[in-house]
């Protein structure tokens, strides 16, 4: 038997293929090896400490090392380490979590279906949209509208609903029944002299024009994040969501809301739907549902969405879908405990209390010579970095992100932005420390630029 060496770096490059990187570049440079986490901090293989300013991947609500989650996982592993929810079977943790989610939902919901990731969940909802249309005899009502810069995952269907070129190029995506309407980011797409209200009206007109051009009888559903996360933390303008919902209601189009990033307190309400006045037909949840300690996602369906699907399964004889790990007992047990902790410790209230300080900190950094502007809501925000002359798009933000990481703060660069999404347990003092590190990184990047 081969004994593995202690060092991770060389073996990582030799054996592991990574997501969301330039693979050839990674073969040469390798990556940062994170060894452990504690609260809002992670530590690399040399022992250097970083503030995890993106909560891992927008997800570690409780921070790293929450003992209650570890204890629940251990207890469930010892009691029932695995069982499935196929063929008229279930188990306690999945039932308990489903009941809790129905009780907490921002609007009345009927059923919960568990999967293991946001991508899987959005992919399944797309399948259920088509299944439902067939159940209703609407054979042509199959098209799905996403938005430019929207992000809903990387499976074939969810990546097609996603509106980011990097998730389409060379994958032969999007599928031809997936459409995309305009991105409601005033800072990026507002026209000279256009007010925010005029911009909102134009976005809504773009959506309605697309529906009419395609034919309302062919459009089944619209997908949207309340705040667009992986597109660069894009906050919708006033009146946008009310207008979208009015249009969808007029043309009998389902609304699927993706709260994979926004859910469980991130925007200062338990669900971002509450903050933005959104009433979805389907709600997709993941990431902070378990603080990503275990892979888990949930789909909540209202009765309008669920009942035709149930009828069709009765006609056919089965709902012919399922994943081995759907409703996994360890994942749902951890998710249940995680949500309990969010509620017990009033972490939604913590976001509300710290939102002003967080947004003010971003606004102060927007005065730096390298920064164009800031934006955010709750504990979700971004700095827009000024493009550098003579460089490719995104190079400035990439350089700033690297300098900020060297200064001890992990963020994520998206386009010309660097994005922030710290754990919900962060304190006011730690927010100040995080932005102090960002300021040092910006200064270092400016000095290197000359």
Automatic annotation (TrEMBL):
Belongs to the class-III pyridoxal-phosphate-dependent aminotransferase family. It comes from the Bacteria. The keyword Cell cycle does not apply. Transmembrane segments: none annotated. The keyword Oxidoreductase does not apply. Gene3D superfamilies: Aspartate Aminotransferase, domain 1 (3.90.1150.10), Type I PLP-dependent aspartate aminotransferase-like (Major domain) (3.40.640.10). Keywords: Aminotransferase, Pyridoxal phosphate, Transferase. Its cofactor is pyridoxal 5'-phosphate. NCBIfam families: PRK06105.1. One of its GO terms (molecular function) is 4-aminobutyrate:pyruvate transaminase activity. The lineage of its organism: Bacteria, Pseudomonadati, Pseudomonadota, Alphaproteobacteria, Hyphomicrobiales. This is 4-aminobutyrate--pyruvate transaminase.
